[in-house]
Write a structure and sequence with these properties.
- The protein is mostly helical and about 180 residues long.
- The protein has helices at about 10-35, 40-70, 85-115, 130-165, and strands at about 120, 125.
- β1 (about 120) and β2 form a beta hairpin.
Length: about 180
């Protein structure tokens, strides 16, 4: 297996970025919804810390993935793909990056404006609290999470659609 992308397949780095992000998000999204319903307790504090660490990891993975993508072009679409498919795929991928960054950054700013200190592994940051801004970032965090769920669903449905209707296993390029 190659480390970098080829014209037909994603390389090891792209696959690792993709699947690590997917696995963490599959944990993060339900965990976030669970946290909202939990009363304040030691369990909630612990799970919230796990959620924040997961969000920061997704943030870094997405940044590294975008940098990697800048230097390594994605594989070509199959010759059978029509122009609308290419456009929809590119829009969905772009929207996924934007929404993932929006989810992670809004979560980070919500915590910071609540007066919490965040550890970004290589540095720590704390800013003055501003509860009005914290509430706004929390609203953005919730709305962008619903957008993320919709985009991930569309992404998965596209893979299924290609398999069923075009007899094309596009998932193979990413596994």
């Amino acid at each position: 297996m190659r480390l970098n992308n080829t014209i037909t397949e994603y390389g090891l780095f792209a696959k690792l970025f993709h699947w690590l992000t997917f696995i963490i998000l599959i944990i993060q999204i339900p965990l976030g919804f669970y946290l909202v319903r939990l009363d304040f307790s030691d369990l909630r504090v612990t799970l919230d810390e796990v959620h924040v660490i997961g969000g920061i990891i997704v943030f870094y993975l997405t940044l590294f993935r975008l940098i990697y993508k800048f230097f390594n072009k994605s594989p070509n679409f199959s010759s059978e793909s029509f122009i609308g498919q290419k456009f929809i795929a590119k829009v969905n991928h772009f929207a996924l990056y934007v929404v993932i960054l929006t989810v992670t950054l809004s979560g980070i700013f919500k915590k910071l404006y609540n007066g919490e200190k965040l550890d970004f592994f290589i540095f720590k940051i704390r800013i003055d609290d501003n509860f009005d801004l914290a509430d706004k970032f929390y609203e953005i965090h919730i709305l962008s999470n619903y957008s993320l769920i919709a985009l991930i669903s569309l992404h998965i449905l596209a893979v299924i659609f290609h398999k069923l209707f075009f007899k094309e296993n596009i998932l193979k390029r990413m596994t």
